[in-house]
Amino acid sequence: MNNRFFSPKSIVAIGGKAAEEVIYQTQKFGFEGDIYAVHPSKTEVLGIACFPTVADLPAVPDAAFIGIPAEPTIDVVGQLSAMGCGGAVCYASGFAEIGGDGVDLQEQLLAATGDMPIIGPNCYGLLNAADKVALWPDYHGLHTLDSLGVKRGAAIITQSGNVGINFTMQQRGLPLTFVISTGNQAGLDAADYMEILAQHKAVSVIGLHIESIKDAARFQQAAEVAKQHRVPLVCLKSGRSALGAKALASHTSSIAGEDSYYQAFFEDLGITRVDSLSVFIETLKLLYIHPPLPAPTIATISCSGGEASLAADTAEATGLQFPPMTAEQHDKLYQVLGDGVVIANPLDYHTYIWGDLDKQTACFTAVCEGEQAITCKLLDLPDPSNDPDNKGVSWQITLDAFIAAAHHVGKPTAVIAGFAESLPQSVATQLIAQGIAPLNGLETAFAAIAASSRVDLSPKALKPLLQATHLQSPSALDEWKSKSFLKQYNVSVPRGQVLITSNPDLANFSLNFPVVCKVLSAEILHKSDMGGVALNIDNKTTLATAIKQMQSLSDKVLVEEMISDIQLELIANIKADPLFGAVMTVGIGGIMVELLKDSVQLILPTTADEIHSKLKKLHFYPLLTGYRGTDTVNLDSLFEQLLALQTTFIHSGVQEIEINPLLATKNGTIAADALVFE
After folding, report:
1. Mean pLDDT along residues 319-327
2. What does the DSSP 8-state code read for residue 297?
3. pLDDT tens across 206-246, in order?
4. Are 37 and 13 contacting, i.e. CB atoms less than 8 angstroms apart?
5. CA–CA separation, 406 vs 436, rounded Å?
6. What is residue 243's predicted lDDT score, i.e. its pLDDT?
7. Alpha carbon of 198 to those of 174, 362, 424: distances in Å?
8. All domains of the chain, ordered by start, with CATH?
9. Are 413 and 368 in contact (CB under 8 A)?
10. What pTM was estimated for this model as a whole?
11. How many CB atoms lie within 10 A of CB 346?
């Protein structure tokens, strides 16, 4: 870890207004080290002696903030690197983000850094609430850890300076140790920050707000370092709705794009992904207080049937489950609540014991002793400014009872306000001090609980990503050539025969009826849309008619024996990717691909066990295992064929393989239609 740069004992602010703001924010933070200023004409900035150049500094700084235009930034970075500075924040814009000459300037900047790490350019920089460092040229809302009375907090890495400011101003009780605005990431990138911060003693969880990853293999390594230090990673990645960059001409482009590849990559690494700022903060808060939840199971306690019903509905939407009460819990709760309450999870304990500390403590303790991963008290707090007579004291009694129960049982607990604003920061701080997660908003809280259960800190061998070396504009083989190619790698295909549409030689036709007749052309990728498929042909006369009807589409047709006893039509695709190497997509296939969009993605190389684990997440998975009396698909054959496609891709150097449909039956799996892109 680079302690000099990220936990400096001395800093220098270089430039005018932005540099002055850095000095102000650092002094406001209570930084105890040396502060220097560099400006060509000023002699003093906010009581700090100012030097005309970097060369005039009395000592080599541990960290620098450079708040001058782009071109002179390059020169100053070179000087700082030569003198042995620990690292620098490059605030200026006008580099690669504008394209053109800016790209050249960024290359010059990177060359000037030498071995010195830089943050940016085009960024706000670094906030460190543990060491009271503010290499940050603007207002922020961060509190030092000392002022909060805590030793650790969350760290947030964001590509947006303004969003970084917003994170510092959250009022939900989450202590933040670091906020880093990464900008263009010419030097250090998200992976570097992850690796550095995961090893910092004052960081308990890391949040990533990113737009992209520069190097997937490097990111893997950094995520592994975080695992080794038991630091969970939470990711909010922009671009969830985009279907991907430069998608190839296939069905798969409608169901799998760049964003779904990122999702698969994060899942492989045990990183939990969320899709909103609120869930991001609440998940970080939950993981700051409790380790990752072992399962998506909860119990909720409320004094309202309406709240209990809302909890049940919201939990179902987020994939959370309510384990039933045990017999022992039932007996303990009955002793407290009697016949007037239906004892169940979620629990509505009515208001019979409201305001009674001992009975509420006994009730809450019994619930906390259940088999759920976390117990949640649903409680919206009154506004103190609207309670002149302190009628809200009974809410504090409920909080005290829940705190006592949580301490007695020692399992993860949370207080959830249905409305985010109904859990004041003062109460959140009180709960955090007691080891209870204060979560703002019912839907947001449940999403955060689900996200926590997706974190995986178990050690796993790093997957060696494939190198994507074939990313030119692809050209498709026709179906017959594609299947002939795949057959060489033990991919099962139907028996088939190519016929000339102008003069089909049906006298030498050797296939068994019924057959399917398909137009054969590398230019027609979606044959059914063009009227280029005729099914269930049971004699030569009907076949001749079908061939004649397709003559205007192509000079050839492919005739194949029909596959019987089809249990399910799947789609299987493998595509080269410049970031992740290669990605396999498996999902519901046939003509339902675009409509259902039920698929999973796997970063290659993969295994049969991994494929099976991913398929279990799909809505259609029960159809593979014998849904409502239907036959069970031969899963071993399915996995064998998918791995055969992987072998084909790895050893052949093609850019994309798509099978749609891949027919799954109780006896085996066969590629009914195929496209290979070279």
Report:
1. 96
2. B
3. 999 998 898 999 999 999 999 999 999 999 998 765 433 33
4. yes
5. 8
6. 38
7. 18, 40, 30
8. 3-240+275-289 (3.40.50.720), 298-453 (3.40.50.261), 495-561 (3.30.1490.20), 566-677 (3.30.470.20)
9. yes
10. 0.92
11. 21
